[in-house]
Amino acid sequence: ISEAPQGGRIAVVPKALLDPRRPAKPTAADKMEGLLPYTPQIVVPPISYLTFNKTLMDIRGMTTGVTGLESTSVLFSYGTDLFFTRVTPAKTFDMLNEDFDYNFIGLVLVALCLATIFTHAMADNKALNKKWK
Question: What is the mean pLDDT of residues 120-126?
Fold first, then answer.
């Protein structure tokens, strides 16, 4: 959920703040589950502001759109100022890290292909030997 309060900033409300199961006094089990304590007002943490330290003037509307990635959407805000950003509410779980080892995954793929060819040849050889018996 995105919001644009009167202050000219756009915030994404964290899902944990909207959980209806938030207890007034969380127990140890509630804390282990990640439930935040209930408060009558929803206070958005400063890190949840998409505009960071920028102030947008006269926000008239926002529109969102999908991207090719499941974890990512885009948000466009218009008014006197235009603002466009990428939003990842569940973090980028479907993107590879920049330090991903492509060489290793290529090596594993080649090894699996060679193992498939080798086991196929062994199976053919075993079937031929079985027919000779």
Answer: 95
Predicted TM-score (pTM) of this structure = 0.61
Q: What is the spatial order of strands in the sheet that 83-87 belongs to?
A: 59-66, 73-79, 83-87
Q: Which of 70, 74, 69, 67 is closest to 10 using CA atoms?
A: 74
The Cα 43–Cα 13 span in angstroms is 9
Average pLDDT score over residue span 23-45: 88
Is pLDDT at 106 greater than 90 in this prediction? yes
In one letter, which amino acid is 127? A
Residue 68 is classified by DSSP as: S
The enclosing H or E element of 19 equals none
Closest to 36 measured CA to CA, from 45, 47, 51 = 45
